[in-house]
Amino acid sequence: MTDKFPIALALAALAGCVHSPDIVSAIERDACSTVTIPQEDALINVPFEIVQGRVYVQARVNGGNYHTFAVDTGASGMGRADASLTKALSLPIIQTTETSDGVNVATVDMTRFDSLEIGGFVRKDLDVITRDYSSKGPPEAAISGIIGREFFADGLLIIDFPSRTLSFSRKQMIKPDAPGALSYTRPFRVPVSIGDIETTGNLDSGANIFLVLPKTLYDQVAASPLETAGKGRLTNTVIETHRATLRGPVRIGAAHESDVDIRVSDRFPELLVGGKLLQKYRIAIDQRSQRVAICSPRE
To answer: Which domains does the chain have, with CATH numbers?
Structure first.
């Protein structure tokens, strides 16, 4: 099991999916036509807040009170429980597991949610990592847990940053051949171009940052000197980072950005696209077809 940058969300057989003719024809025209789910088709349709670049929603554990959870496309599994929630709800420690942040591996405890509910949609019997995610950050950014990408694995997830709305449906999908769809093999590493360089970037809504570049990639796309930026904290590791302004342009689907504030590290293993860069756009993720759409705000 993997974990990742906190500063910084089972493939289903496509033949078994049911779609109305109108929806399918729209998706065939453009992957970005998926980013509006009719109310009657939505299993989840809830508002969210952005706190330090991260998507925060209200969720209920075991049918109890609402708690603040971060929706994190960079987190594997169903989710995470902050140590404070595990203590408050007297959740059991059921086993240990290993988690990697891409640099180091750590052994962590796991607990179990009998149920986790968002906007009336419930999943049951979830085994999740539990550890301290909040005590070292500012109080206003504290969370009770994280909702990981597997929670949305059997449908279409839409994070509409301009409208601050999160939606989920099993009745729509991004077709593999839809214009504008970005394919991936490993979640959610999609094609990215920086100037004339083509590469792959990890979409991570849980990272409170614009971009993180490995030093080897930075040397290919920029020539300006780096400034010291201090330490960056990964889940298991503290790394030295540098900062720069990347002229670009950076292109990911419909996202086109120039003069981007970036961090650079010798130790970070891949290009990371954080929540701050995504905040102008509407993001659709379909793990059944292994496709992502990054779409401009509504006209």
So the answer is: 14-176 (2.40.70.10), 182-278 (2.40.70.10)
